[in-house]
């Protein structure tokens, strides 16, 4: 059974085209004006991850759903474990108990007579485990979707860090937190540089700042 999941897509406060143009021009000018420097060694893995390819179909497959009997056994396992019984004996006991409960429930459903207290108890117990099973399968399904999302985030962050050349030449594998930290540090550095440049432009051109203030005053007057 397969599911179609809307995987996480990166949503960042990206730099505008003007800001990216400024950074590109600044880097080009800095390289042209500086003296010769040794070319940094770029790892061959910067463009591609070293992780082995994961089997896509297996990763996208939903976990196998459990049935009420499995949930019943999981809840009875601890109690039976204290009796020092073997695994085969415990399985037989739990199977007999579940079968007896199932037979009693079927008797209630097929009989037109008023069921006894014991039969009602069996019916409620069967319904109880059915609800637990539904909740457990939903928990496993959501956990699977979140795992797929986390893997997509980690893969994108690693590829983005390698594409930007943020890794040292000797870095082959690193944790997801390391890649995320590199991307955040790079973004904060670029954002700080752009903001500082914008502040310098405003300070060097007070007329533009006055025009902006006049426009804001006009907008306030119109709203009033």
TrEMBL record:
<protein>
    <recommendedName>
        <fullName>HMG box domain-containing protein</fullName>
    </recommendedName>
</protein>
<feature type="compositionally biased region" description="Basic and acidic residues">
    <location>
        <begin position="191"/>
        <end position="201"/>
    </location>
</feature>
<feature type="compositionally biased region" description="Acidic residues">
    <location>
        <begin position="202"/>
        <end position="224"/>
    </location>
</feature>
<feature type="region of interest" description="Disordered">
    <location>
        <begin position="191"/>
        <end position="224"/>
    </location>
</feature>
<dbReference type="InterPro" id="IPR036910">
    <property type="entry name" value="HMG_box_dom_sf"/>
</dbReference>
